[in-house]
Design goal:
mainly alpha; about 675 residues; about 45% helix; two-stranded antiparallel sheet; two-stranded antiparallel ribbon
């Protein structure tokens, strides 16, 4: 049986060949199709009718959908409705324990915040973040920051509703810089409502800068100190590869192949069902799960959203992995200007946004628009349609030959150009490439780019509505340090806003899965006696494929969003009952070892020498798996899952009297595990 062949989607063309903005998320003003017709501009990020149809919202109500803003990947991928699905509807779910109905009911009630996700929107935010402590204006609304930029990107547009107000009330509005992250942590005061411990900087750091803390991460931070651990993470080349990473390098056989090698071996690889773009997604998953270079992998994931090129795109099958390797990973902890320049010379990006079809006689605006709107200054932030057109004219000549970047001077528009504050005579075809690179450097180092980058980084690592003081400080460092990403990160980590934001980020679906698996110390090796009916790929690669398909069900597989805006970062984009229940089921599969291509410790072995009373045992499990001690109310609710008469003093054995898997899974349903 061959591995699954992921269907490709050719962008910028509706199913009937049209360019309807509601069926074609790539529809842009100035786009010239093969008939020479110019499209209209639906203002993808400013028009609520079109708010993130693919990435952060539903189809507009007037087009037969449910309205904007609430992204429901679970419902879309599995056809679920708005009601709460039965908790054992997952086809892989195996629960032969007694009293399933009682346990399901208890799990839904355990977190309050978790259960409230079913309601979505502002109510769900209230359950996770509380009602807030910041006073509202006299009219009952939160004061608006008049100094904020006028543009709106997908994350900011999602936070403009009542749900966003709820989070703003709980987010620090100001802060201070200190000489080191440790000093900033020591001086930060958490004022927002949260179920997490307010003064546990080790847990906070491990949750924000990794795909999920495990015992090894916590021990490393305690051993090295906050400053020492961060310094080490910022030099990933000094951190040895783990067993899982070594297996990924060896068994995902296409990862390090050049284009010429892939081209030469394509027929043989196809016969085995091995595809380079597919293995690229699996490689990212392996790194997130197994690498000790966690901050680096977090930044790789960030830039795969920020400078997004879809994983599966017609024609890019043999070059998308090279984009990941030679652009994203090469510069993830370098200077963004270098990443941006490299991206604009890479065939994967050029083909994805149709740059190879843009010539001096037929201008295509796709890449020029996204270079401004998504990859540098941000949507509607200092440029207009004339600037987009001028940029598209300047970028002509950049093309692809045999899946390699090539500059074609005969196709370059010659003549003066002016884009925002950049102007050039552009008076020769041969010199056009140098002018293009000067323009790319200009917009990559533009003050608006600095703020947009800072806003996105702070949204990923600090809060869905990051404080302006923090964004300003990070943007200043971006300019001062010529787009050096580690310097910007150090500014963020050395300010109190980062450390005061405890409980202000919720894991996205993919982050929930990786955090769960890492907490359970997933082992990349197959257990003894494992057999497979697929001899073309290893058990390890097969297991990564299973995880990839699960992430696709969640709507959050690495790099797989077809549109160029990347996955949204904010919590209100992911409010989905179907996805949540699917996550609980998958967590149970991991707890009992049902992902059989990997080795899992038995749930009764998670805590060595477990206590012999139910309350103490639960405390040990929660400290090990979710790095907190639960409050008495939640403890009591979880103990009821173990049995209606189980109390903290009830004697238990290592299997929790047979309920260990249910108890561990219940810990993964708590808000404490959902919150980063």
């Amino acid at each position: 049986m061959n591995e699954r062949d992921v269907p490709r989607r050719r962008p910028r063309q509706g199913p009937d060949g049209s360019h309807d903005p509601y069926t074609d998320p790539y529809y842009e003003s100035g786009y010239e199709d093969q008939t020479g017709q110019l499209g209209r501009h639906p203002q993808r990020y400013g028009d609520s009718r079109y708010a993130g149809q693919w990435g952060n919202g539903a189809m507009p109500a007037d087009r037969g959908g449910s309205g904007p803003h609430f992204y429901d990947p679970g419902t879309r991928s599995r056809g679920r409705g708005a009601g709460l699905p039965d908790i054992d509807d997952d086809e892989d779910y195996e629960d032969d324990e007694p009293s399933n109905w009682r346990r399901r009911t208890a799990m839904v009630a355990i977190g309050g915040g978790a259960a409230a996700l079913i309601g979505g929107g502002a109510y769900a935010v209230t359950q996770f973040f509380g009602k807030g402590t910041q006073p509202a204006a006299s009219n009952g609304e939160l004061p608006v920051d008049t100094a904020a930029p006028a543009y709106v990107d997908q994350n900011q547009s999602l936070m403009n509703g009542q749900a966003g107000l709820g989070i703003r009330k709980n987010t620090p509005t100001t802060g201070s810089s200190f000489g080191t992250p440790a000093d900033a942590a020591k001086n930060a005061v958490v004022v927002g409502n949260t179920v997490l411990p307010k003064k546990d900087p080790v847990r906070h750091l491990a949750s924000r800068l990794t795909f999920g803390p495990n015992s090894r991460v916590i021990n490393d931070i305690n051993k090295l100190g906050i400053d020492g651990w961060i310094a080490k993470q910022l030099k990933p080349e000094t951190i040895p590869l783990t067993r899982g990473e070594q297996k990924a390098d060896a068994e995902l056989v296409t990862w390090n192949m050049t284009y010429d090698q892939l081209k030469a071996q394509r027929e043989d690889l196809d016969k085995k069902g091995v595809k380079a773009d597919d293995q690229n997604v699996r490689y990212a998953i392996a790194k997130q799960l197994f690498s000790d270079r966690q901050l680096f992998e977090m930044m790789v994931d960030f830039f795969n959203d920020y400078l997004h090129v879809a994983a599966f795109h017609d024609g890019n099958e043999l070059v998308r992995a090279a984009f990941e390797r030679d652009v994203i990973r090469k510069y993830a902890l370098g200077n963004y200007v270098d990443m941006f320049l490299a991206a604009n010379k890479h065939p994967a990006l050029l083909r994805y946004l149709d740059q190879q079809s843009s010539t001096k006689d037929r201008i295509n605006e796709n890449l020029a628009r996204e270079n401004l709107e998504l990859y540098t200054v941000g949507a509607f932030n200092g440029y207009n349609e004339t600037d987009v057109r001028q940029a598209a004219m300047l970028q002509t000549g950049r093309s692809i030959r045999d899946n390699q970047y090539v500059y074609r001077p005969e196709q370059h528009y010659v003549g003066p150009v002016k884009i925002m504050g950049f102007s050039h005579a552009n008076n020769s075809a041969e010199g056009g490439e140098a002018v293009q690179e000067a323009y790319f450097r200009y917009i990559a180092l533009h003050p608006n780019t600095a703020r947009y980058m800072a806003q996105n980084l702070a949204t990923r690592f600090v809060s869905d509505v990051p404080p302006k003081t923090l964004v300003d400080a990070m943007a200043k460092t971006y300019i001062d340090k010529k787009s050096n990403i580690p310097a910007v990160l150090m500014t963020m980590l050395s300010r109190t806003e980062f450390w005061a934001s405890v409980g202000q980020k919720v894991r996205r679906p993919g982050e929930y899965l990786t955090a769960t698996y890492r907490a359970l110390d997933i082992n990349p090796d197959a257990p003894a006696g494992f057999t497979s009916n697929n001899t073309n790929v290893s058990p390890f690669v097969q297991g990564l494929g299973d995880i990839m398909r699960k992430l696709e069900e969640f709507g959050h597989a690495p790099m797989e969003l077809p549109t160029p805006n990347g996955y949204p970062d904010v919590y209100v984009a992911w409010t989905s009952a179907g996805t949540m229940v699917n996550q609980w089921n998958d967590a149970y599969n991991a707890v009992v070892g049902n992902r059989r291509q990997f080795t899992w410790q038995k749930p009764e072995a998670i805590v060595a020498g477990p206590p012999n009373t139910a309350g103490a045992y639960l405390d040990a499990l929660s400290k090990k798996l979710i790095n907190v001690t639960l409050d008495n109310t939640r403890k009591a609710a979880i103990l009821k899952i173990a049995g209606p008469n189980v109390t903290a003093s009830t004697p238990v054995d290592a299997t929790f009297n047979g309920a260990i898997a249910a108890v561990v899974r219940a810990l993964f349903t708590t808000p404490h595990h959902y919150l980063r």
